[in-house]
Design the sequence.
C-alpha cells in the first residue's frame, strides 16, 4: 500500500517558499526540478490518475507542475517525477508531497526516501505521513 508524505515545519504544511524549495532541490545530488509541465504520466511515481478525468483538469496537467522535482533512479537509469509542489493561496508558499515506495522495495535505501530525508534537513522540516506520523531526517 502506498502512503502520502509531506514536509512540515512548525506544525504547518504550507510554510515552504518556492525559493527555499528550489534551493533545496538544487543542493541535493540526484534531485532536480522537473524540466517542464507534462501531459502524460510517463515518469511519475506513485500517482494514480482518474481515467474519467477531463483533459486539463488532471493533477498532472495543472500549471504548477513545473515546480515538481525528479529523482534519478540508478536501477532504472532514468529520472522520475517524485516530489509534487502544490501552490497555496498565500503568495510564494506551497506544500510538497511525495508517495512512499512500493512495499516490495526497501524504503530506507530507496533514492526517493534518501532524497526526502536530505531535502527535509535542508528545509529544516520533518517528513510527516498522511497519518500525522513524523519520520526522522
Sequence:
Amino acid at each position: 500500500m502506498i502512503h502520502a508524505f509531506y514536509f512540515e515545519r512548525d506544525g504547518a504544511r504550507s510554510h515552504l517558499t518556492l525559493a527555499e524549495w528550489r534551493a533545496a532541490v538544487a543542493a541535493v545530488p540526484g534531485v532536480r526540478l522537473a524540466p517542464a509541465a507534462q501531459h502524460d504520466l510517463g515518469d511519475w511515481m506513485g500517482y494514480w490518475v482518474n481515467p474519467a478525468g477531463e483533459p486539463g483538469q488532471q493533477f498532472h496537467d495543472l500549471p504548477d507542475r513545473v515546480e515538481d522535482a525528479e529523482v534519478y533512479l540508478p536501477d532504472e537509469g532514468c529520472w522520475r517525477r517524485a516530489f509534487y509542489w502544490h501552490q497555496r493561496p498565500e503568495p510564494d508558499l506551497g506544500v510538497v508531497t511525495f508517495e512512499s515506495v512500493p512495499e516490495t522495495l526497501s524504503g530506507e535505501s530507496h533514492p526517493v526516501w534518501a532524497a526526502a530525508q536530505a531535502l527535509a534537513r535542508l528545509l529544516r522540516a520533518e517528513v510527516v505521513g498522511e497519518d500525522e506520523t513524523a519520520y526522522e531526517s
